[in-house]
Design brief:
By secondary structure, the chain is mainly α. It has a single domain, classed as Orthogonal Bundle (Arc Repressor Mutant, subunit A), CATH 1.10.10.10. The protein contains three helices and two strands; from the N terminus they run ββααα. The protein has a two-stranded antiparallel ribbon with strand order 1-2. Helix 1 crosses helix 3. The longest helix has 15 residues.
């Protein structure tokens, strides 16, 4: 697992969902903004307390979660 120092989990903040640096900005919100075509500059204009590195790490975290590792099960046939 990579180190995600900007992704935080706190039960007292947004119900423990993945957030950016302890703020009430979820990784899901950032991903939805990017997925709907907003550029990092547009996102930061709307959320000036975010940094480009926050957006990049949210994307990296999503990629890490979506990583598909295949672990074949040995055949039981003799």
């Amino acid at each position: 697992m990579d180190t995600f120092d900007r992704i935080t989990f706190d039960p007292a903040v947004m119900g423990g969902r993945a957030c950016i640096r302890g703020m009430r900005i979820t990784v899901a919100l950032v991903l939805n903004l990017v997925a709907n075509g907003q550029s990092p500059d547009e996102i930061i204009a709307d959320y000036p307390y975010l940094e480009v590195e926050d957006i990049q790490q949210a994307l990296q975290y999503a990629a890490w979660l979506a990583d598909e590792s295949v672990h074949p099960i040995p055949s039981l046939a003799a």
